[in-house]
Amino acid sequence: MLESMNVSILIVSGLVALSIFSSLLSFRIGAPLLLVFLCVGLVAGEDGLGGLHFDDVQAAYLIGSVALAVILFDSGFHTSVKAFRAAAWPAISMATLGVVVTTSVVAVPVHYLMGFGWLESALMGSILASTDAAAVFFLLRVGGIHVRDRVRSTLEVESGSNDPMAIFLTLALVGLLASGAKASPLMVLADLVMEFAVGAAVGMAGGALIVLALNRMGFERGLQPLAAISLAMVVFAVAGVLHGSGFLAVYIAGLVAGNAQINAPETMRRFQDGLTWLAQIVMFLTLGLLATPSEFPAFAPAALAVSGVLIFVARPLAAWLCLLPFGFKRNETAFVAWVGLRGSVSVLLSIVPMMMGLAHGRDYFILAFLVVLVSLGLQGWTIGVVARFLGQIVPKRIGPVERMELEIPGARHELVAYRIVADSLVARGHRLPRWAEPSLVVRDSRSYSAFAAGQLQPGDTAYLFARPERVPHLDRLFASAAPAAEADRRFFGDFALAPGIHMKELAISYGLPVPAMDFDMSIAHWVIRELGHAPGIGDRVTLGEVELIVRGLDWDDSISEIGLAVEPTAVDAPKLPVFQTRTELKAMMKRWLKKGVT
């Protein structure tokens, strides 16, 4: 007994360690890390080198559900209210209507290729309808791909919020198949509203409870993150007991807690980063062990065909229909369509038909597993290339910054330390804001006050207090300016304009077609009005023969600098003959009507 227990511990810990060390190879060859974790599970399984036999679907579903709840809580915790507000309606549209459209389109090839009935085909479509939060967050945040704010926010909020819809559809269709399709559409709709309403309510209440507990209970520093994640699991379970969506509840709880003022937020984030990685590894290993590669060849042709329809038809159609009302450009819609990675959620949902004893139960799992492999391999491996092709990557306007952060318990400020580099703005004499006066300067191993140190010099280390939201502004002052010139030339326009300049001055200086009614409006306000949404770095608006580009945002998210390109750049030029915008569709309709009249 004791020996078998030790062997089990050795196997589990060894697989986790192998997955962690395999990440080094993943970064070198550019493979999606989550695909590597999945493959480690396959290699360790009964058809692989490890020969481990694992077929407990209920245990796999339990492990996957808990891991997914941890991931979604962390996703919400790291999503700012600003990002949520900027992308709420597009993301919600993608998370609801987009899931339904994807389910409907994917059901067609499944019906004809697999010989399933239409209800069974719709079940397969719902299983594959959800994008994977773990994959999307990893590729956009950890993978070093810095895309435009609105596009990134839409993808992140969608990936964190579309799981409840896909899960609900899957469970509803499984219930219909198990009961012989006796439930009415009105009952299904009522259940959907109940799941989302209860989940949202429990999530908001649970998030407020987490904030209250962390700030008022006085937990020891090491126990605080454990208290937060345990309460998050309580929120997840309570929502489920009340017949609500536990996944939506835990995501909203994370969103509430992550945007509140809590004690030791950096400690929380560091703990959750490690815990989320562990959850991803365990979930993908478990799902990989559950699969049997010898069963794959018989399903491979159908899986490739379904993957093709999902990636090149269903997801693009859903993205276009859902984003059309919100003014997304063609290339932005194309990128959102491409970053529709399927992952653990689809494989996890495919276990449900097996648990319920439905016909073709194992077929759902094998087909979903193969589609996930294709999606992670094709879309995950090419996301950087596609982002560059579509002009969605925003180059960094500052160089490397040497920054350290220290938490101050119970305070709303951080102690930030910067090492001064030679070509930074500060080293070249730029004055610091009054709220950023250094408290201590270390020079040549000796400590000085700000007054005694005088002008900061290369090699100095400056310690100062700042509110967390103002730290990015300090980064621009202390960072190397080397890459900025290259970034400015290629992406941010020929030169910079102050955001407070009036449009009349711009019109007179460059002979631009500015209506007289806009003369007294500042450039910043005019750009925001034309964009129709909160500005993000890299957003651009064409004015006559020039282009105005948002170069930078201040600590309060107001525009701090606007670039002017003398000739409109090709960054937003449509790269694909699809995904027409509202304006383009209206113009096409006018041309068709004009031809019809003539």
UniProtKB/TrEMBL annotation:
One GO CC term on file: plasma membrane
Entry protein name: K+/H+ antiporter
A Gene Ontology BP annotation from the UniProt entry: proton transmembrane transport
Coiled-coil boundaries: none
Transmembrane segments: 6-27, 59-77, 89-110, 122-144, 165-184, 196-214, 226-254, 274-291, 303-328, 334-352, 364-390
GO molecular function, one term: antiporter activity
Subcellular location: Cell membrane
PANTHER family the UniProt entry points to: K(+)_H(+) ANTIPORTER NHAP2, NA(+)/H(+) ANTIPORTER 1
Residue stretches making up the Transporter-associated domain: 488-568
Native source species: Paramagnetospirillum marisnigri
UniProt keywords, alphabetically: Antiport, Cell membrane, Ion transport, Membrane, Transmembrane, Transmembrane helix, Transport
Listed InterPro entries: Cation/H_exchanger_TM, Na+/solute_symporter_sf, Transptr-assoc_dom
Transport as UniProt keyword: yes
Membrane topology listed for this record: Multi-pass membrane protein
